[in-house]
Amino acid sequence: MGISNLSDNTMAQTLAADPQALSNISAKIGKDPKAAVHEVAQQFEAMFLDNLLKGMRETHFSDDDQSNEMQTFRGLLDQQMVQSMTSGQGLGLTKVLEQQIGRLAHLDDDGQGVQPTSQVVGGTPLPARALAAYRAALAQVQSAQQAATKPAATGAVDTSSPSAVGASGFARALLPQASTAAARLGVAPELLVAHAALESGWGKRSIKNADGSDSHNLFGIKAGSDWRGATTNIVTTEYVNGVAQKKVDTFRAYGSYGEAFSDYANVLSTSPRYRNVLNQGRNIQGYAQGLQNGGYATDPRYAHKLVDVMSSLAQYMTQA
C-alpha cells in the first residue's frame, strides 16, 4: 500500500467515524484553503454515503434483527463500507464538490482569494466565501441524498412503476412484457412475474440507479465481467454457509422493463446451469427448484419462497 493510499484510507476512516471533524477542518482554511476545501468535500462524500446506507437499511431491512448487538454490528459494517467506498478516488462526489466549493469561494489554482472574516462555524473563524461554499455544498449533498433514498413526489401516480398499483396491478402491468420472454423459455408468463415479485418485493424494493431512478432490474441480475451495459451498485444480502451477510454488489441496469425481461430470458436460456428451468410450462415447483439448483440465489429457501409468491400471485389475480 502506497503512502498516498494510506493517507486516503486514514482520512476516510476519520471522516466516516466523526462527522464533527468539519469543525476542525475549518481551522485549516486560513493556512491552506485548497487543501481544506478538498477535506470538506471528502467529508461530505463520506457523510452522504453513511446517511445513504442508513436510509437503505430503514427502507429495505426493517424486518432484520433489531438487537443492540446487531445494530452495533451494522454500524461498524456501514463504517467499513464507507471507508472502502471513499478511499482513493472514491465515487467522484468529492471531486465535483471540490470544484463547486472552489468556484463559490473564488479560489484560483493556487488556493488564493479567500479572505478571513469574523464568521464562525463550530467555534472556529471561517472565511465568508468559504462559509457560503460550505452551505452550498451541504445543500447539494442533502438534495442528492433525498433523491437517492425517497421516491419523487408528483401530483399523479406513476403507473409505469409496478409498485404504484399494488400486487395485482404489478402482475397485470408486467404480464404483457413477460409473455415474449416466457415463450422463449417455454414457461407460463406468470412464473416470470412471480420471480420478479420475489426479487423486487412486488416492485417496492426495486434496484435504483445512483441518481435515484429505476434501473428496471426486476430480477436482481448482477453485472459480471462480460456485461457491457449500464450498471448500478447496491447493498444486498448473500448467504454464506447458511448465514446472511451484507455486501455491495454491481447490478445490471436497463432502459425499460421490456429490456429486463429480454435479458432475463437470455441469461436463463444460454446458461447450462439453468437447463432444468426451461420448458417447465406452469410447473412452478420445477421452475423454482431449477433456479435454486442452478445457483440463481444463495438463499437456501429460495425455491420455497418463489412457490409461496406464485401462490400469492394466483390469489391476487383471482381477487382483482
Automatic annotation (TrEMBL):
<dbReference type="InterPro" id="IPR019301">
    <property type="entry name" value="Flagellar_prot_FlgJ_N"/>
</dbReference>
<comment type="similarity">
    <text>In the C-terminal section; belongs to the glycosyl hydrolase 73 family.</text>
</comment>
<keyword id="KW-0969">Cilium</keyword>
<protein>
    <recommendedName>
        <fullName>Peptidoglycan hydrolase FlgJ</fullName>
    </recommendedName>
</protein>
<dbReference type="InterPro" id="IPR051056">
    <property type="entry name" value="Glycosyl_Hydrolase_73"/>
</dbReference>
<comment type="similarity">
    <text>In the N-terminal section; belongs to the FlgJ family.</text>
</comment>
<feature type="domain" description="Mannosyl-glycoprotein endo-beta-N-acetylglucosamidase-like">
    <location>
        <begin position="158"/>
        <end position="317"/>
    </location>
</feature>
<keyword id="KW-0282">Flagellum</keyword>
<dbReference type="GO" id="GO:0016798">
    <property type="term" value="F:hydrolase activity, acting on glycosyl bonds"/>
</dbReference>
<keyword id="KW-0326">Glycosidase</keyword>
<dbReference type="Pfam" id="PF01832">
    <property type="entry name" value="Glucosaminidase"/>
</dbReference>
<keyword id="KW-0378">Hydrolase</keyword>
<keyword id="KW-0961">Cell wall biogenesis/degradation</keyword>
<dbReference type="Pfam" id="PF10135">
    <property type="entry name" value="Rod-binding"/>
</dbReference>
<keyword id="KW-0574">Periplasm</keyword>
<dbReference type="GO" id="GO:0042597">
    <property type="term" value="C:periplasmic space"/>
</dbReference>
<dbReference type="GO" id="GO:0004040">
    <property type="term" value="F:amidase activity"/>
</dbReference>
<dbReference type="InterPro" id="IPR013377">
    <property type="entry name" value="FlgJ"/>
</dbReference>
<dbReference type="GO" id="GO:0071973">
    <property type="term" value="P:bacterial-type flagellum-dependent cell motility"/>
</dbReference>
<dbReference type="GO" id="GO:0071555">
    <property type="term" value="P:cell wall organization"/>
</dbReference>
<keyword id="KW-0966">Cell projection</keyword>
<dbReference type="InterPro" id="IPR002901">
    <property type="entry name" value="MGlyc_endo_b_GlcNAc-like_dom"/>
</dbReference>
<comment type="function">
    <text>Flagellum-specific muramidase which hydrolyzes the peptidoglycan layer to assemble the rod structure in the periplasmic space.</text>
</comment>
<dbReference type="GO" id="GO:0044780">
    <property type="term" value="P:bacterial-type flagellum assembly"/>
</dbReference>
